[in-house]
Amino acid sequence: DTVSAPRDDQSKADNRVLNLRCLLTCACLHVVAELWKTCRLTCNRNSNFSSDSAHACGTIVSYLTSPNKIVTTSLIVDIIVELTRYSLLTIMSLDEKNSMQDQVSTTVVHQKCILLDLLTRSLEIITTETVSRTQTMSSGGIKFVEDLFDSGPMECWKVLLSSGDAPAASAASSWLTCFSSSVGRSHAPNWNIASFLHANPPEQDASTSMWCGFGSAARLAKDLSSTGSDSVSASFMQCNALHVLTLGEASFSASWATFFEIVTANVIATRPTKELCTLSIALAETTLAALASVSESQMISESLLSSQGFLERRATKPVGELLSLLLYSLKARRDILSSDEARCDCQSVMAMIGRLYESANKLFVMTQLGSVAPSEAVCSIRQKLLSCALMLMTEFESLPQGRRTRNDVAKYNDLRIGFTDLAVNALQSLEYVQLEANDDTAIVEEADHLPSKYGYGFGAVSHLGQEAAFQLLRVSLSLLSRLAPTTTIGLSSKLGDYQNFTYGVEFAACLKERRAVECIQYHLSKASTVASLTYQAVHAGSSSLSVSSIHNNAVDVVCLITRLFHGLIDAGSTIVDILLLLMENRCFRSLIDNPLLRTSCKTWTFNTDVSDNEVMPTAILHRGYYNSLPRHSGHTSSASKNKPSSQKDSVHFVWREVISIFSSLLRSARCQSQTYAKVDEPILRQLTSVTSVVLDFVCSYAEELFFCFRSMQTEARSRSNLSSRGGKTESTSFSSSIQSSSFAFTPNLLKESADISLLFAELCKTDSKIEFARQCCDIYERVRVTCLELMKVMSSFLGSIGNARELFLALSSASSTIMLDQPTTMFDAHPLLAEGIPNARHEAIRNAHFAHSCCILATAEDFSNFQFATTKAAETSGRDKSLEQSFQIQVNNKFIAEVEHIAGLCLFNAMAVLSDTHPASNSFISFSNEEALLLDVAAVITPGTTVAICAQTGAQQHLQRYLIQPRGGNIRYARTVGCDRSTRTISVEYADSGSVERHVPWSWIVGMEDTSKRQCVFSYLPTPKSMAETDTYGPPSLGHLILALKWCRYVGSTDFPKHIVKCVAERAAILLCTEVLLHDEIRDGTLHDDTIRRVNMQLLDLFDYADTESEGLNPKVAVSSHQRDKSLASTIGEDILGIVQINLKHQLRAACLEREEEQKMWEQNNSGWDNATWASSSKRQGRRSPFRSVRKTSSGDLS
Predict the structure, then answer these.
(1) Residue 854 to residues 261, 541, 645, 717, 848: CA-CA distances in angstroms?
(2) pTM for this entry
């Protein structure tokens, strides 16, 4: 009642009394606030206030908080909360009463200052009490302040924080502070009105009389310019009151932000999602409104002071606290907005981003280089502003595209350009500063010193300004990566593509105008140099904590920059300006010459090259990892073997990111070259040099790239070396009876192989392949050989996983299959059980062990994921776990699923290289019908030569044999049967239908085969029965392609990524079809009939046989129920499967005929077979089933 009384009593005396009462209240709150701040959090430990050991302040607080006393904590806090509400309402009514007046009296300003002081001290006490109650979990937690963050009070807080008097108050405060400093009286205790008039006579104040022309503070300038004015004292008092008001508003803003940050933290843990969502949105909007008011007032005062040459060291705490609260509320908002029901609409998020940009733009101007604000505060404010922008933009981009309109996207793109400029501005204001030894104050700023740039360092213990600048560097790079043009922002239409393109052009122009790429390269150079100097010690495990911290921070910056470059290059596939900008600034040369990559690659090669007599900890040998153990000779402890202790090397991630950058560079340049091929010749010439840049990288790091693949064999040899020297703690006769793989890899090594093979695949496409083979012929041949070996390794690994899972699945369903009456039905149900359950179980265990032996658990996370079963059959643990179940988890766990995904990428990339470099890929020569008329076909085309026929004239094509052509196309492939020179026609047998057509005109020939390129890449061998034989069984063969297709057929019906399975299956099917046809064409009679028969049977097991009716065959013979359930048709599509079946018709027909013949023999000779004996482990007596042999070769050989 006392605080709100001035609304009704207008007398001057009563106002003075009320002001005195308010001042007395403020004084009491000062005392309580200090008591609560110093003792409240520990008063519970000193509840016995009469104890001799109790401090006087603690005794007072204990007295006030004692429930037995008249004055209890509850009563004190309730009074303060009530006082807070009244003070807030009084300020609101005070502002409302004076809002229509042109001038505001000094008395009103004083009243508002007092009320703000009341609010500030009350909030400080309530904040401390909130922390105390939540820590002790007493007195209902934050229930006592619920009324302060309801919807009504939140609106009041918002209005108060965005007060309309702030600009005038800030201007007056700035002038008074600067003027006091200019006359040397900043810290004078007796600086009053008289000394002001004495130090600044009116006749000498011509220059300062124009300091301000805004609001009520303009009267001071007028009074100071007039000699003998009696209102000088009153004007100065009003200016001083405005100065006090500014300080009060700043303190209040900081206290309010601190209080609500604590409240939000408690609400997150205790309140429902809906309530938390409402509070977080209200806090974000209120904080943005406060920031807008503060930035506007400071911007006005800054502009007014700059004309007089004044510079002010501003108090940055309120802005910092408000930004901390905004950042915290946005994080809470992000965590609870996961469901679509709670998501905000695009317009509200867009409005928040717009308000944030307006404030950020003003604050960036006021904190630009040359300001006298402390570097720590400046960098902290900028870092928080950009962090908030990053979070809001991430939220906007996560919204469904259907909620965005064209205007939303256009406005958002404008804001993105604005924040791009701010992020680049932040990067340009930073520089690396190296502190001298034992000197933590190398860049302590003097009062009159204006820094040219804000210095950052990489050390954990460094100058506070350096730490803030380092965080600003990280956030700026992260924000630029987010702002890079992508195709996920705009609408899914042509208009959306145009908006994305327009933004990309503006983004590139902003980077070019601000010379951002040069600035980024500067930071990359500094971070890479520091990281390279510390890498040897960190990798060897001999570095101190401070050196490790420096190294990790430097590498973190390198990771952010390389990720940014990668995003920009990906954007270059649609925005050629970005691609040209990076090339003009020689960004790729800075990556090739990067000192960190040079140092790390040499370290990996050296540490992996281990002699037979030297034993090193396994973790040290792993490429892409490091360990805290130093390198030494001798045996490792059992603990280090059983529990992997390696840590992922972040430098290895940088290396892989750089490899991906050059892969993306080739891909983007290829896309742009197709666009500008006939449009812009200068751009096309610049893009042509991209291949040379990539080849420069490959040649510079050739040994390091190829050593990655050799490391797979090195890892296996090192493991065998450790095992032979006592590295394994236990060995059983069973484990020694099954063979391990000759290769091994960690997840990081496999990821690196995938990245390198992708780079090779991009180099082996179209025109890049020609330049690659011409400039680097030796490396080109090594790439082909390496990818061929990689394909063998990955198909063996994936095939063993697929076989093991398929066998375990068949065994789990054997209990129902074994009771079938007919043995043929039983075999047809699952051919993998053809040799009996014991043999199938042993094969499953061998395949599972082989797959497990290929993988290395390098980190504790790998070990944990390996224990995490992904199927119910593998979850059984403890004493009840059988031998079969213990091996099931080796192929059904979270770790093997991750590795399998990466191995699938490696397999596809290797097949892409083999397909593009296969001699058959360019074995066709295309020509027009006019060239065909001039060509002596009879002298060139011999019987057996494959030609391309097109009945339409003028259809010149660039043809490639063995590439799948869709059905119904105009071009048909055919084999030449004969040639008639007299009629200028040829006779052909079409490959797609087998029909023969005679008298085909020579003019219809649009391509012919170059028979000199009939060369095979894979050997003609089927998949052996044992997976160990697949690993060591000669060169890569057709059996490895069949293994890959079997794996695709199995995982095609699982939740494995469909796009990977489809790509691998298509490549493998085309390669297999190509190789089989080539072997059939150039067969020299050295192949055994049994080998041909086994290959045909395995082809039939994969592709079935479609023409059973025309051949008079039993359809059940061509395809089993097992194949019908898991057909390749669902993976590679009916079109490709149909083309493969047509081209392999002769092989599939021969296998189908043989299978039908042997099935008839089986049914005749084994009509009384006993099902029970099949499940036993003993051998059956009597004649061995020939059909059983067929089933074994058709599917069991693939195990």
Answers:
(1) 51, 27, 19, 12, 10
(2) 0.82
